[in-house]
Amino acid sequence: MSNRLKQFLFGIWGLLLIPLVMPILEKGLKAANIFTDPSGVAATVFSNAVVTTVTDNLVALGQQRWFKFAMVFLTGVLVGISLEWLNRKSDERKASELRSLGTKFRSLSDSIKTRNASSEWPDNVRDLKPAILSAFNSARKFDLWVPNEHVYQLPDATFLCEYFRSVGKLLEDGQFDKANSEALSWQPFLDNATLS
What we know:
- The protein has two domains: 3-63, no CATH class; 91-192.
- With 196 residues, the chain is an all-alpha fold.
- Helix content is 74%, strand content 0%.
- The chain is built from eight helices and no strands.
């Protein structure tokens, strides 16, 4: 829905609120004697008869059955629009976070791969463990399967590199369902792997 249409609907809704709040406003104005004081500025601009006519007509409009129906209907429409907008914003934020997680996965894959060639696993990634655990925790928030501590008992880092690379690529590309399936497909490999 276009932004202008939303603004228009909220404007109409705001105008429809006036007859509903008019009885309260009318009581407040009468109690304050704003329009009955002949020396006041308000009485100079608007006569008491004009104000009384306008407020009486607005109160009468607010009590009409069709008006109440229109108000309830428009309120429902606006609540629906607002909920749909909030849902879309939430989905966009989630998609952005998942893409960011994919980038983090791919970066970790590259970092582990370069270290794997130079020294012994898992000691060569000791300084990366906080980043790995952070990535795993982020993935768990989105219900993605992540390897457990057994991954550090494998003979080398190939499993973890490939997991991060393949799942990260799908997350970066916005293929979240495929990323979830891909992550789950790695579980049997870790369960059946020979631990060192």
